[in-house]
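User: I'm designing a mutation panel for Dienelactone hydrolase and want to avoid disrupting the core. Could you give me a predicted structure to guide residue selection? Please restate the sequence first so the numbering is unambiguous.

Assistant: Good idea. Sequence first, for numbering, then the predicted structure tokens:
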Amino acid sequence: MKTYEVFPAPVGSYTVGRTQMDLEYTASDHSTRELTAFVFYPSDSSEGKATSAYMFPEVYGMLKDQPLVTGYVTSDFFSIEFKTRCYEELALSAKEQRYPVLFYVCGGGGSPEWGTVLCTDLASMGYVVVSIGHPNSTMYKRKDGRLFNVSKDFSDAIIALSEDPEMLALAGKMEMRPDDEAAVQMCRNVLALPVLAKLTEFSELQAEDVRFVADVLHKLDTGELDSIFKGRLLVDTGMGIVGHSYGGLTTAMVCRDDDRFTCGIGLDSGAFGLLDSDLSTPFLLLYREPNYNMNAVIGANNSRETYYFSVDRVAHLDYCDIVFTGVSEELRGKRDAMEMRNLVTDYTKTFLDHYLRQKAASVDSLAYDGVDLVRKTNNK
């Protein structure tokens, strides 16, 4: 397996700045949600600064305390000694008056830094990208120095799903490339499992976090909150959102519940909590087989376009930074890391450019070996 010490150069022409914000609000369940958010954005120069650190060592150190990964995480699970391609606290680029806004949602048990490659790529192409640290379901360090790890309740909910006899029985029956009727029925059977109730609650809270931070961005744009983003964000013309794994559930829920979001992307994710949901939003799914079985109801119910692309020779964590940082072959698929990064960035960029920037390019026209458009739905 080829190893790396530096993330790939961004695909776009902008230098990428990064800033971190600590935020807090009271959620619908009356809990206090203490968040952090990394914002990646286009800039014109590195200003002579050194590149940003990738992940705080204290955050990486919390992995060993997660029940989700205890037993197979070792000191060589993945590396954080990586040179990034972004820089702290740069000036916002002056090339455009306003920039479109995206959110990135990492997988459960992960960290908001785990999407650094994709977030940097998208920022280098002129997007402002926000990656949130969510209480209970992710691990992160706030600017105030406090550390937040995955909660026992969230870990227990994930473990319960992985050990649930009904879930295991259904998983054993999932077909590769099932016909649509069979896939929708399988997906309905999975989503009806009682064991998913608690995970759905956590995902709904993550969706609240995203909506709250979207409110904050509006205040940054209007100048109600002081920042470099005053008058510079395209928040009123629609935002996009991308989520990996468990974060993909949040992505779909945000699209369903908040019409400020124009389009969404799920990277090897599922549809928990979305049994009878019309997202009313264009949605793209990139996944490994047989994951169509876990997502079929999204396209069946969505009154807008839903794209299902199957990607072969990949592992689940290939959709995040571990495609570069992972040092265990067991974590990786068979595709070259650069090839996988180019694939994910290209599909993501093309989809977002089409629906947020109204560019003519469409994901239908992309051609990668072993990437197949399994289904496109439009139920209007």
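For picking mutation sites, this is relevant: The chain has ten helices and 13 strands. The CA atoms of residues 174 and 293 lie 7 Å apart.
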